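Worked problem 6 (solution included).
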Amino acid sequence: MKNAIVLAAGKGQRMKSNLTKVMHPLANKPIIGHIVDKLEDIGVDNTVVVVGYQAEKVEEYLKDRVTFAFQEVLSGTASAVMQATSLAHEEGDTLIIYGDVALISEELLTNMYTHNAEKDLSILTVTREEPSHYARVIRDSQGRVEKIVEYRDCTDRELLIQEVTTGIYCIKNKLLFEYLPKIKHNDVHNCYDLSSLVELLYKDGHSIQSVRAENPIEVMGINDRIQLSVANEVLREQINYKHMLNGVTMIDPKSTYIGMDVEIEADAVIYPNCHIRGKSIIRTETIIYANCWIENSIIGSNCKVMDSRITDSEVKNNVKIGPFAHLRMNTVVEDDNRIGNFVELKKTRLGEDSRCAHLTYLGDSDIGSKVNIGCGVVTVNYDGKHKFKTIVKDGAFIGSNVNLIAPVTIGKNAVVTAGSTITDDVDDEAMAFARSRQENKAGYGLKYKKKEK
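Solution. The predicted structure is:
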């Protein structure tokens, strides 16, 4: 049985923020999300997240993926772990980890459980050339882990030790809840310190080992905006390198921002200053040119997207988009389409091989195949209270500067002439005129201009 306790009750004062630290975004996902994702991926059976400050925000985000425990008074790490009472009678090993160690790998987490299978307690440690304020790992004369000493309590000799604890432990669950009540209050630091477990178990002859992390960055806590920036840089590099190794071309990886859950197929090309986030998928041979924002969207194969924003939508194959197009709210663009500059599609399906080249808004619409949408067309879908649908059937031609007052249906192969305001349905193959007849009055132009003077 694999259990985990994630400590996430503190505010994170050094963030200088009203938002609790673990909810700050890292690679477009809250810090705490990275930890929980990895625990799920390695098959942890029971995860308890200990919350405190802004508990409701963490609970709203994680929902039923974990069990929550509440630490009302922030009086140390041992006190936080004591709140995880739902695990008190579980079997197996329990990993204790901070909610801000987002860069830790699944491999290292798995190693903690694996190494602890034959031990009572495993401590994740790291060697630092300049250990500064980190707690030192103290060993006995036979090299066994004896205790953890906070740097403020270290002797001059202990301060020279370069092996420090990360504060991450894996322990037999029964031992954890047996020894938690034995941890005494540290009057000097005014807290119940979980590291006291090490010395207690050592004195009682329990088997303790250290598991070394090779890379200090991997076990870095994110405590301030500088460390958050460092973590973002590390993750961006890892994510981009993974995609490039899988056959994706990135013109400038240092200015390309890809989310953790994004899928990109081989032979796609990503230009600089693109942000691709959420559950997005980019198919093969698609080119995402500079300055695009794509979120929770699917872009099919052999597409070209230029300087555009696409959110919560799907673009199928052989589609050209942009520059400066905006697709949102479950828009679906079928194959072989062209969406040009300054076109906005909202909650709209654009049928196969249609054209919407420039300066157009289509909202709450169902547009058929082989439809031409002229410049300046607007579906007038909102009356101030309700949204209404516009339907344009296959083969229709909508001229420039047309207003389609929804709800309205334009029939198959119908033509709507330029400048029309359409309030009634147009039958199949009909031509609709909805504009006043032009009248020219000889000499009135010059007369008007003289009047102005």
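Discussion: The helical segments are 31-41, 55-62, 77-82, 106-116, 173-179, 196-203, 225-245, 444-452.
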